[in-house]
Amino acid sequence: EVQLVQSGAEMKKAGESLKISCKGSGYSFTTYWIGWVRQMPGKGLEWMAIIRPGYSDTRYSPSFQGHITISADESITTAYLQLSSLKASDTAMYYCATLVGAIYFWGQGTLITVSS
Amino acid sequence: EIVMTQSPATLSLSPGERATLSCRASQSVNRHLAWYQQEPGQAPRLLIYGISTRATGVPARFTGSGSETEFTLTISSLQSEDFAIYYCQQHNNWPWTFGQGTKVEIK
Question: Would you give per-residue pLDDT tens digits along chain A (116 residues)?
C-alpha cells in the first residue's frame, strides 16, 4: 500500500526558514515523481515543485522558484520542502503527493502558520 | 503553462440529481487528466485518472470523459457525501496545474 506521511504542523515567525518532510512507503521511491502542493486558506491547489529521487531531476514552478528548495533522501525514502525567508503569505496547508504510473497518492498535509 | 478552467464555479443541486462539471485545458493534455474531490479540512481525494479510470474505491456514479482539451466529470445521482469541491488537474506539461475548482453545494 502506497503511503505518504508528512511531518507535523509548524508555527514560525516572518523571516525564519523551515523544512518539512514527507516519508514514502509501499512503492519504488526512487522511480516516481514526488512533489509539493500548496493550498492557501480558502483557496485552490498549486503545484510548487517535483523531484524524481533516483534521477536527481527537479522541477520548480515559476511561481515558486527562488523561494523554495525540494530535496529527497533515498536512504530513508523521504522528500523535503524547504521554505526560506518566510512571510505571512506562506501560511497555508502543504501537501506532498506522488505520481505512481498515472495514479496520485497524497500525504495528509502539513499546516504552516507564519506570524509577522 | 497550461491553464485549466473549470465551470461552473458553483453548482447548486439537490440529492439525487445529476451533476455535470466541466474542465477545459488551454492546450492538449493527452490522457494526463485527473479529477479530485476535496471536503473541508481534508486532503484531496483522487477520483479519476487518465481521463476516465476510477480510482480504487470510487463509486460507479462518478464518470470521467473527454479528450484533448475538454473534459467532464459526471455524478449520476448526488449523495449527501458528494457535496464538496472538485478539481481537475493536468500532468502533461510542467508545471502541472489545477483548475480553480467547482463547488457542488446543496440546493
Answer: 999 999 999 999 999 999 999 999 999 999 999 999 999 999 999 999 999 998 879 999 999 999 999 999 999 999 999 999 999 999 999 999 999 998 999 999 999 999 98
**Nearest chain A CA: its distance from B64 CA (Å):** 15
* Min Cα separation B36/chain A (Å): 10
Report yes or no: A59 and A71 within 8 Å, Cβ to Cβ. no
Assigned C-alpha cell, A30 = 526512487
β strands within A1-116, DSSP E: 3-6, 10-13, 18-25, 33-39, 45-52, 57-60, 68-73, 78-83, 92-100, 103-106, 110-115
> Which of B36, B45, B97 has its CB closest to that of A47?
B97
CA triple A5-A11-A17, angle to 5 deg: 85
Beta-sheet pairing, A10-13 with B10-13: unpaired
Look at B44 and A95 and tell me if their CB atoms are within 8 Å.
yes
Q: How many CB atoms lie within 10 A of CB A11?
A: 11
In 3D space, the residue among A25, A20, A26 whose CA is nearest the CA of residue A7 turns out to be A20
Q: Which residues pair with B29 in a beta bridge?
A: none
Closest partner residue to A109 (CB to CB) among B43, B89, B101 is: B43
